[in-house]
Design brief:
Layout: E1 6-11, H1 15-25, E2 29-34, H2 46-61, E3 65-74, E4 80-82, H3 85-100, E5 108-118, E6 125-135, E7 151-153, H4 166-169, H5 172-187
Parallel strand pairs: 1-2, 1-3
Antiparallel strand pairs: 3-4, 3-5, 5-6, 6-7
Helix pairs in contact: 1-5
Length: about 190
């Protein structure tokens, strides 16, 4: 007998993230997308940001809430842009980041995704997904979003931006969302 479908409320303004979450969670866990603005907290730790945001939104909206915070942490730039990735992307874009990386030999980076779940008046839980890679020398491809066109995952010669089925291949967010999925299905009471 199949399990009943549960619903979570995913707060994000990024429709691409909604698409990725749906690919991983549905049909067992239905996604209700809530597109509202909220103050994004500052920290070097994406899990801390996700947990604080989820708790704040769960208590404000009186619903179970899922949020995701991700970033590209570049070793040679002391983990910049890190948790400020979206803000930096809007300000200087991929070409700006590549300009900062001119003549830098160590292009090692880490893509991190923190997913947090919280119910009203309860403590949040969070799940971290990471993926090692390197920063490309140029913007490559037009698939995916965010830093995908400059992120080359470990073991590949191609940037995510060059991979047509990037949503199915990306590991960092998928790893975090799969941990959430396991938690929710085990919990059985969303």
């Amino acid at each position: 007998m199949p399990k009943p479908t549960s619903t979570i409320n995913f707060v994000t303004s990024n429709i691409n993230k909604v698409k990725e979450f749906r690919q991983i969670l549905e049909p067992e866990i239905k996604i209700n997308h809530i597109k509202i603005s909220y103050p994004e907290l500052r920290s070097d730790n994406p899990q801390e940001i996700a947990k604080m945001s989820a708790e704040m939104l769960a208590n404000k909206l009186k619903k179970n809430i899922v949020v995701e915070d991700s970033g590209l942490f570049i070793k040679a730039l002391n983990d910049f842009p890190g948790t400020c990735s979206a803000y930096i992307h809007k300000r200087i874009g991929l070409k700006g980041i590549l300009k900062l990386m001119e003549n830098v030999k160590d292009r090692t980076c880490l893509y991190k995704s923190a997913v947090a779940y919280c119910e009203p008046s309860k403590k949040p839980v969070s799940f971290l997904g990471q993926e090692k890679g390197k920063v490309a020398e140029s913007v490559r491809g037009s698939y995916g979003f965010g830093h995908d066109p400059i992120f080359i995952p470990g073991g590949s010669n191609k940037a995510y931006g060059e991979m047509k089925n990037v949503e199915e291949i990306k590991k960092f967010r998928r790893r975090a969302v799969l941990k959430l999925r396991y938690y929710l299905l085990k919990k059985k009471s969303i």
